[in-house]
Write a structure and sequence with these properties.
Elements: H1 6-11, H2 18-24, E1 32-34, E2 40-42, H3 44-49, E3 57-63, H4 73-86, E4 91-95, H5 100-103, E5 112-113, E6 116-119, H6 121-125, H7 131-151, E7 158-163, E8 167-169, E9 179-181, E10 192-194, E11 196-198, H8 203-210, H9 214-223, E12 225-229, E13 234-236, H10 243-250, E14 257-261, E15 266-269, H11 284-293, E16 296-300, H12 305-320, E17 326-331, H13 333-339, H14 352-370, E18 376-381, H15 388-400, E19 404-408, H16 410-413, H17 415-431, H18 446-457, E20 462-464, H19 467-481, E21 486-489, E22 509-518, E23 523-528, E24 547-548, E25 554-555
Parallel strand pairs: 3-16, 3-17, 4-15, 4-16, 8-11, 17-18, 18-19, 20-22, 21-23
Antiparallel strand pairs: 1-2, 2-14, 5-6, 6-14, 7-12, 9-10, 12-13, 14-15, 22-23, 24-25
Length: about 550
């Protein structure tokens, strides 16, 4: 049987005007700021007006470590949201915006797939409502103001060897990872080493996703450390008087974007930090607003539970006062086989033993999520090649871990295929068994927080930090930053820092290469192993196949 591509399905969507979607949530038309007919931003004044309402139940969707076989975490998030609405719950979806870099590289977009998608799919995966451009521009303004300040006499006495503010662009461009800036003589300033990260790794992105409102946004932007003086004292964004203009550029980007699923259910798509190099969650303002508008809010955290879920639970929930009622861990038969040692080309053949051999990866994620005091449901995202015996092997394994696995066919059937999953998730959430708590306290020393995640979540023997890194962490503690959580930057493909180590490896260490203080966002970034905060393109990037057809439609995006 031939299945339609994601983009073909999305093009055939029977979309409703965005005002009708707003109506289902009780958002008056005058509080929707439309971008065309099928997407709109929600006004801050409306968001302020609903803050006294009770919260709905929060459902987090996470996954096993990603494999080239695909897990479908966003697809499951969308399918579960549609399924909850199908069984009579008032549900909303909160997902992240897509970065242009992966769309033209290898990973692809962030709108779901099959019959569980958010639309308009093309716009969501391209420029959407311009939020990423605003973040890039605000970040670039600060970069320009730093070098301009140095050029005009350097009143703040910035040590140009210690400018820590890097530049950003929303594209995978490895050539920009390390650059030399201000070449070309006196008129162009003082030459110095610099570099680019991808926009999703910008502290401005993290701040937009964690700020409660515009006032909080400006305060956090002002708190960002951009450089140090010769005496090692920090220079802040507010010292350069850049925080006000940056807030102006981000004014509209702060407002959540309302769109719809293929089944016309409401979705907020807002913010887009990657989970391997940033904190990997939808914006706080979108999630907390959704909780005031719906009885159930289904949100996702990027990549595997060792990254996205850990950061959602230790960083986002801590900062925003959130507590999930249930966590859904997405797994596939195909990914279990890959974790069990089967090559991608051989995934179509039944192999129950390989499924069983790959299940320890899933088991570790289940144990980790449970350690936060939250019940787990496993969603087996169905592929047409799955056999009953393979699915049963996963169900049996999950039962042995004290959880339940439900087969979900949302990719193929939409909400009809996810109704069983939705029923189970609602049943577990309504039991009220969650007793959520982060796995480390605020007052634990920074180095111990890093060790806690390395040992308890990754199951490493230890995190290896040299004296320079330990001294840096101690200095930040002395400066009053010891209360901050840590944001681990690590490969998404393994519990370890070696992407080839699938399954549930043990007997390894986590080498910490670098630590960066994100004082405005409110966490310390811990760069582990070979992970890069500026990705590169693959040998054959997706961009080579993306084009407009004779009808002016986009081809090759999915």
């Amino acid at each position: 049987m031939a299945y339609k591509s994601d983009i073909e399905i999305a093009r055939e969507a029977n979309k409703k005007p965005i005002q009708e979607i707003g109506d289902t949530l009780g958002i008056p038309t005058e509080h929707l700021l439309p971008y065309g007919h099928d997407k709109a931003k929600v006004s801050q004044s409306f968001i302020n007006s609903v803050q006294d309402r009770p919260n709905g139940k929060l459902v987090l969707v996470t996954a096993i470590n990603p494999t080239p076989a695909g897990e479908g975490k966003t697809t499951t998030t969308v399918g579960l949201g549609d399924g909850l609405n199908r069984i009579g719950k008032k549900a909303m979806i909160c997902i992240r915006e897509a970065s242009l870099g992966p769309n033209f590289g290898m990973k692809g977009g962030a709108a779901g797939g099959g019959h569980a998608q958010v639309v308009p799919m093309e716009e969501m995966n391209l420029h959407f409502t311009g939020d990423f451009h605003a973040i890039t521009s605000a970040h670039s303004l600060l970069s320009a103001m730093i070098d301009n300040h140095i050029y005009w006499g350097n009143e703040l006495e910035i040590d140009i060897r210690r400018v820590v503010w890097r530049r950003v662009v929303d594209m995978n461009d490895r050539a920009l990872r390390q650059i030399t800036a201000s070449l070309g003589g006196v008129a162009n300033g003082f030459p110095r080493e610099a570099g680019f990260d991808i926009t999703v790794a910008s502290e401005v992105m993290a701040i937009l996703c964690l700020a409660k409102d515009l006032k909080d946004l400006q305060s956090r932007l002002g708190d960002m450390i951009v450089a140090y003086r010769r005496d090692r004292s920090p220079v802040y964004c507010r010292d350069l008087k850049a925080d006000g203009a940056m807030t102006v550029l981000l004014k509209d980007a702060m407002q959540p974007n309302l769109v719809q699923t293929l089944e016309n259910n409401p979705a907020f798509v807002h913010g887009g930090p990657f989970a391997n190099i940033a904190h990997g969650c939808n914006s706080v303002i979108a999630t907390t607003t959704a909780l005031k508008l719906a009885d159930y809010v289904v949100t996702e955290a990027g990549f595997g539970a060792d990254l996205g879920a850990e950061k959602f639970l230790n960083i986002k929930c801590r900062k925003a006062g959130l507590a999930p009622s249930v966590v859904v861990v997405v797994a596939t038969v195909r990914a279990m086989k890959m974790n069990g040692g089967v090559a991608k080309a051989d995934l179509g053949a039944e192999n129950v033993d390989a499924v069983k051999a790959g299940c320890p990866n899933l088991g570790r994620h289940i144990e980790n999520v449970k350690s936060f005091g939250v019940p787990v449901v496993v969603a087996i995202n169905h592929f047409v090649t799955d056999t009953d015996a393979e699915v049963q092997a996963i169900k049996d394994f999950v039962a042995s871990k004290g959880a339940e696995a439900v087969l979900s066919r949302h990719w193929e059937l939409g909400s009809e295929g996810s109704a069983d999953l939705a029923t189970k998730v609602a049943e577990v959430a309504e039991r009220g068994e969650a007793d959520f708590a982060p796995i480390y306290p605020d007052d634990m020393p920074l180095a111990e927080k890093i060790q806690t995640i390395a040992k308890k979540i990754y199951r490493a023997d230890e995190a290896v930090m040299d004296k320079k890194i330990l001294d840096q962490l101690k200095l930040w503690e002395d400066q009053g930053y010891g209360q901050l959580p840590v944001c681990m930057a690590k490969t998404q493909y393994s519990f370890s820092t070696d992407p080839s180590q699938r399954g549930a490896p043990t007997g390894f260490t986590v080498p910490v290469r670098e630590v960066r203080l994100s004082a405005g966002a409110g966490f310390v970034v811990v760069v582990c192993g070979e992970i890069m905060t500026m990705p590169g393109l693959p040998r054959v990037p997706s961009a080579e196949a993306i084009h407009l057809n004779d009808d002016g439609q986009i081809e090759g995006l999915f």
